[in-house]
Amino acid sequence: MLSIASSFESIHKRQILSTDIDYYNKYVCTSSADGVIQIIDSDNPDLYSTVQLQEHVGPVWQVMFSHPKFGFLASCGSDCKLIIRKTNYEGDWKVVYQYDGHKSSTTSIDWAPYKSGAIIACSSADGSISIHTLNNNEWSVSKIPYAHSNGVNCISWSNELLNNNLLLVSGGNDNKIKIWEGQIGLWNVIYESDNQLSTIKDLSWSPTPGLYKYVFASCASNGRVFVWGSDDYRDWVQTEIDPENLQKQKISFSRFGTVLSVTMNSYAVQLWKQIDKQTWLCMDRSISDKKTLDRQHKNINQDIFASIV
Asked: By three-state DSSP, how is residue 47 classified?
């Protein structure tokens, strides 16, 4: 059983929707249905030093730090906005870019591999994906206008390039998974899954190649989790994780791609390790602290971050 190394008080008044930790484990960031983003300095974790950001109106679905080379913090929310901030020497987080070109809620965000530059993708319930690129201190945007019918729920970048092009996987309310290849402004679907019979809720592309060159995981609203593997990005092999248990909510690969964490409905997280190409073994190490969560009256929905190798 894994134990909790540290805990922090929250100023949130409603459900916590997303969490992230920066590259150096200095800042812990949370977002909530109350519209507030909270940033805690782990070196000084008292509530008096907590930073509160309230640029969003309504629930903030996701927060994510960029690579430290860029030093950004991005967020998206029900107000249809993507907001990017950067901290100064005084510890203030200032908005450096804001995009409100989506017609419906912005549902998820993901930073591209840092070697490709400061690039962030943002998905929306309006069915489109926007790609935002920083060049010469100016942000530009391109769109994939009809990525998924009825809305895009999740996106994830691959660290592997294909013909020097970026790869992005997306999932939506059309029950499909699509893989996009391209450069800025030019994006083509190179793979589209068959109907998965349920809405795609979450995606996570493994940061490193494993037994397959390309590996990502998907989680659907029916509680089914699949790991997808391919050596040529066109023919994909699906391996279902724990098909008997349909209580799965979120997924996340560890920083080195060796462990897949699966967040369950029951306040627990299971850790899975790949044994061979089509076999994943539960490591019998779960994280569960229902009593603590009940005391806080919080329903935390989060990933287990890359400290697990």
From this structure: helix
Which residue type is seen at 231? Answer: D
- For the whole model, what pTM was predicted? 0.87
Which phi and psi (to 5°) does residue 244 adopt? -75, -25
Question: DSSP string spanning 151-185?
Answer: -EEEEEE-SS-BTTBEEEEEEETTS-EEEEEEETT
Largest distance between two CA atoms of the chain: 53
Q: What's the CA gap between 25 and 31, in Å, rounded? A: 17
Highest mean pLDDT among 50-59, 280-289, 291-300: 50-59
293 pLDDT above the threshold of 60:
no
* Residue among 265, 271, 272, 260 at smallest CA distance from 290: 265
Q: Residue 223, SS3?
A: coil
> Which residues have CB under 8 Å from 254's CB, separation 6+?
260, 261, 306, 307, 308, 309
**Using CA atoms, how far apart are residues 226 and 268, in angstroms rounded to an integer?**
19
C-alpha distances in angstroms, 301 versus 34, 146, 181, 251, 255? 14, 28, 30, 11, 19
When pLDDT is averaged across residues 108-121 and rounded to a whole number, the result is 96
The DSSP string of 86-127 is EE-TTS-EEEEEEE---SS-EEEEEEPPGGG-SEEEEEETTS
Chain-wide mean pLDDT for the chain?
86
In the chain, % helix, strand, coil (3-state, to 5) comes to 5, 50, 45
The SS3 assignment for 252 reads strand
